[in-house]
Amino acid sequence: MDESQRRAWPWLGTGPLWMPRAARVAADDAAEPGGDRGGQGDASAAWESLRREVSGCELCSLCATRTQTVFGVGREHARCLIIGEAPGAEEDRRGEPFVGRAGELLDLMIGAIGHDRQRDVFIANVLKCRPPDNRDPAGEEVVRCQPFLVRQVELIAPVVIVALGRFAAQSLLSTDASIASLRGRAQSYRSGEREIPVVVTYHPAYLLRTPLDKAKAWRDLCLVAEILNAAPAGQ
Ligand code: URA
Q1: Is residue 202 part of a domain?
Q2: Of 185, 134, 53, 50, which Cα lies nearest the Cα of 173?
Q3: Higher pLDDT, residue 115 or 21
C-alpha cells in the first residue's frame, strides 16, 4: 500500500482491510509518472488547439462573468476520465477543477484506488466556465459547451469515465434518470467507434454533506478499479 492509499482511509473512516483485491491491483498497475499511451505529435497539436478554443470561447453568456475558463487537469492519455459539473468560485479564480473542499475529498477518492490527480487521471467538467452565484448550468450553456467535452473524451480515449453527480451523469448520458438508478453498474458512452463504460457516483460536494453515502461511493470506486484492471495494460 502506498502513501496516497494510506491517506484515503480517513475519508471512509475505516482501515486498509477494506481495500478489495481489484483496487489493490489497480494501484499496483498504476502507470509510470509522465508515461504516455499514445503517439505524441498530432495529439499534442490537437490538445493545443482545443485549449486555445476553450480559453477564447464566447459561445454563451458565461464568458462575460468568468475570470477564466477551466479546461481540466491531469494526464492527457489518462485511463480514467473524471467529469464534474462546472467550476465554482475557487476553480474560476485558480483555473483548475475541484480545488476546494470537494476537490480535497475527490483527491482522497482518487487516492483510494491508488491514483493521483496529476499523474493518472484527467479531471474535467461539463461546463468550462463558472455559472454565477453557484446556480445550476442552463440547458443552452450545456449545449454550447458539450463539443469541448466530446473532444476531450476523444483525445483522452479513456478506459473508463467517472461521472460525479446527477448533473454530469445526466448530461453525459443524455438521460433524466436518477443517480440511484444509474449507479451500481457501468453505463455506456459512445465516443466515435468506441463504447466507453461510465461509472456514475455521488458528487464529492454531496458526500461532504451526506457522509453516510461514502460507503456507496466506495463501491462505485471499486467498480472503476475493476474496469481498469480488466482492460489490457496498454489501453
Ligand atoms: N464542482 C464541480 O462539479 N466541478 C468543479 O470543478 C468544482 C466543483
Answers
A1: yes
A2: 185
A3: 115
Conformation bin of residue 127: beta by default, left when phi > 0, alpha when psi is -120 to 50: beta
Confidence band, pLDDT 50/70/90 cuts, at residue 42? confident
Q: Tell me if 84 CB under 6 Å of ligand 1.
A: yes
| In the chain, alpha helices (H) | 3-12, 21-28, 41-55, 62-65, 89-94, 101-112, 139-156, 165-173, 179-182, 204-209, 214-230
First to last CA, the chain: 24
Give dist(CA 69, CA 86) in Å, integer: 10
Residue 87 Cβ inside 6 Å of ligand 1? The answer reads: yes
- Residues 123-152 have a mean pLDDT of 97
- What's the CATH number where 201 sits? 3.40.470.10
Distance, CA of 156 to CA of 121 (rounded, Å)? 10
Of the candidates 138, 141, 116, 123, the residue with the CA atom closest to the CA atom of residue 32: 116
Cβ partners under 8 Å of residue 190, min gap 6: 196
> pLDDT category, 41, cuts 50, 70, 90?
confident
Q: Are 108 and 214 contacting, i.e. CB atoms less than 8 angstroms apart?
A: no
Asked, for residue 34, whether it belongs to a domain, the answer is no
Q: Is the pLDDT of residue 149 over 50?
A: yes
> Which structural domain, as residue segments, surrounds residue 97?
3-9+39-230
Pocket test for ligand 1, best of 106, 125, 162, 207 (most atoms within 8 A of CB): 125
Question: How many folded domains does the chain comprise?
Answer: 1
